[in-house]
Specification:
This protein is of the alpha/beta class. Helix content is 40%, strand content 20%. It binds flavin mononucleotide. Keywords: Flavoprotein, FMN.
């Protein structure tokens, strides 16, 4: 069984709701980055031992939250020793606007994985972009690098769009499947 972790920050619970679906799809454990941008020593040890790491962050001001960036910078310790090289990585970001510059945060996540020498898993879900498409459809935001999700600005944490939650589960399952294949 692969060891897969979803390490995420969520200021107000919306990204957490997505993280839970990604984790369910991947049969992964959740590690929350707290309001100070920190995870526990046990969390770091789990990530060091992981086969796959999935990053999650809200998009704040067009990029990852400062708490996620603090975690990313703290992972320079692993970078120095190549401790996370050849692990499988994926990522997701949630924000209020359909675009909201989520792609910038996504590229930050992909770049972080690449700095660590990781193997990045793309989304591989066809976009739902016809006139009939709604937020209940799979990948209605049309991501490809990783998973983009949306919670409208006036939506509670339990109102992340249903198509995005379903997409999250599928993306988690894809990462788990690829991780299992690479482990042999
Ligand atoms: C400081 C801050 C900056 C934000 N910047 C953006 C942004 O650049 N683009 C966007 O679409 N939404 C933006 N939002 C909205 C959040 O991305 C959205 O509310 C998201 O669901 C929050 O996720 P969370 O509950 O996991 O923190 C911002 C919210 C905050 C608090």
């Amino acid at each position: 069984m692969s060891q897969i972790y979803v390490v995420y920050h969520s200021g107000y619970g919306h990204t957490k709701a997505v993280a839970e679906q990604v984790a369910e799809g991947a049969a992964a454990q959740l590690i929350a980055i707290n309001a100070d941008g920190e995870i526990t020593e046990a969390g770091w040890a789990a990530l060091d031992a992981a086969d796959a790491i999935i990053f999650g962050t809200p998009t704040y001001m067009g990029n990852v939250s400062w708490q996620f960036k603090k975690f990313a910078d703290a992972s320079s310790k692993q970078w120095f020793t190549r401790g996370w090289a050849d692990k499988v990585f994926g990522g997701f970001t949630n924000s209020a606007s359909p675009s909201g510059d989520k792609q910038v945060a996504m590229i930050t996540l992909q770049t972080l994985a690449s700095q660590h020498g990781g193997i990045w898993v793309s989304l591989n879900l066809a976009p739902s972009n016809t006139k009939a498409a709604t937020g209940a459809d799979i990948n209605h935001l049309g991501g490809s690098v990783g998973l983009l999700t949306r919670a409208p600005a006036d939506a509670g944490a339990d109102e992340v769009l249903s198509g995005d939650l379903a997409s999250a589960k599928l993306y988690g399952a894809r990462i788990a499947s690829i991780t299992a294949r690479l482990r042999g």
